[in-house]
Amino acid sequence: MVKYQGRAKSFLDWGERIVMIKQDGTILIHQPILREPANWQPSGSKITFTIDGEYLILNSINSNPVEKMKVYFRSISFILVTALRDRAKILVSGMENDLVNYILFNPDCIEEGFRIKKREKSVRSGSIDLFGYDKNHIPVVIEVKRGLANINAVHQLRMYVKDIKKDREDVNVRGILCAPRIPDMVKNLLTDYGLEWREIEYPTVLPDDHQKTLEEFSEKNVTTIL
Amino acid sequence: MSFNAKIKAEILKTLIEVTSPLVSEVKLNIGKDGISLRAVDPAHVAMVDLQLNKEAFEEYQADEMELGIDIDRLNAIMRLSSTGDIVSLEYDEKNNRLIVKVGNLTRKMALIDTAGMPDPKMPTLDLPGKVILKASEITKGVKASESISDHLALIVTDDAFEVFAEGDTDIVNLKLPKDSLVELESDGKYKSLFSIDYLNNMIKPLKGDIPITIKVGNDNPTRVEFDIAESKGHVIYLLAPRIESE
What we know:
The complex is a heterodimer. Chain A has helices at 96-105, 151-168, 184-192, 214-225; strands at 2-5, 9-12, 18-21, 27-30, 39-41, 46-52, 55-62, 67-73, 115-123, 126-133, 139-144, 174-179, 196-199. Chain A is an alpha+beta fold. Chain A has two domains: 2-73, Protein Yojf, Chain: A; 96-199, Trna Endonuclease, Chain: A, domain 1 (3-Layer(aba) Sandwich), CATH 3.40.1350.10. A five-stranded antiparallel sheet of chain A has the order 2-1-8-7-6, with no helix packed on it. By secondary structure, chain B is an alpha+beta fold. Chain B folds into two domains: 3-110, DNA Polymerase III, subunit A, domain 2 (DNA Polymerase III, Chain A, domain 2); 129-239, Box (Proliferating Cell Nuclear Antigen), CATH 3.70.10.10. In chain B, strand 8 (97-102) and strand 9 form a beta hairpin. In chain B, helix 1 (9-19) runs antiparallel to helix 2 and helix 3 (135-146) runs antiparallel to helix 4 (196-203). Chain A binds chain B through residues 210-218, 221, and chain B through 40, 43-47, 121, 123-125, 151, 195, 220-221, 238, 240-243, 245.
């Protein structure tokens, strides 16, 4: 049985659960199905145990925001206690930033002669992912989406192009939406607004921190010579 | 400026085989006495340095110049050649093209501007373990390791050369004692780990029992050297190590 009071209030009646208490105070209470825990407490929560009659109670208090959770145990079938050693950090590839970087280093994937001037350029309606010029020196606004591009991305791009046109009093500004996949509906809308798109597949490569580079050894040689 | 040469197809294919796993574009340095190239892959893990003396060519006449070659395009035409074919290379200065002729087939290949292409420096390395062995031996070691792991160790001791790979369940070990090697020079044990993907690319152009020189240090790059074109050409390959996982 779990009672919780904090940002909301909850009550979870008796049932068979897995309760996980992590080394940093994080608590996860899992029911037999679904990925998400039914109840949880964040990292840094303070934990105490008390006994109330026939129940063992796990008390967890988080200070900011104040959240109190009480987990009542009436029988425990299995306890595992272990100290895990793990200094690895998860590396994730395939984020929006990875695609922005890919275009940054391979501007030819937009078109030949395309030059990138600025990344994260601030304009009135937000921040342009990539701003540059084509080979005819016409300003180009690039909006990047990591997965399937949607209608919102079109409106975002349209606003940015508008902002640039206003700022430069230049009617000739191109807008290009870049994503690995763009549905036809979105392409049609882009065409209607006089905008363009590029479907860009980019390699999702995880950095390999065990592999050294030759440069590391060149540097070492330079320092030994000096 | 002129460059006119005729070369056996298989020698030009070796040049492609050595270079293409690392880069898609390369700068050929054309000189009076032959051609050379040096390339580093985008991850800066491997470097290849290739020299081809003019004696490796059937005919050779050239001024000093640089040619920016798109390897994929050159490969596209070379794939259509057979062993024994003679390939003719001619620089067309007016159109900035390389005219490649294989038999009756001609490709006028656009050249790439060499201005932005890097001139990689070769790091000087202190690699105290040195062996010379038959190419087929190292190929055997890499191929055996490939099925169980993505990296292997090259180990030189004072009396043997070893290739060692450890997978989740299996272990591969190729041990060549001193008397089965062409040459061994080492005052102790030297060991470094290398990516099998890169080694695989490196051993691809190795044919039969040509002698290859491997130098190893401790957690240092390896330097692999071998002759091509019946000793009228030479390849140096540098590969950065992997570090032992904890």
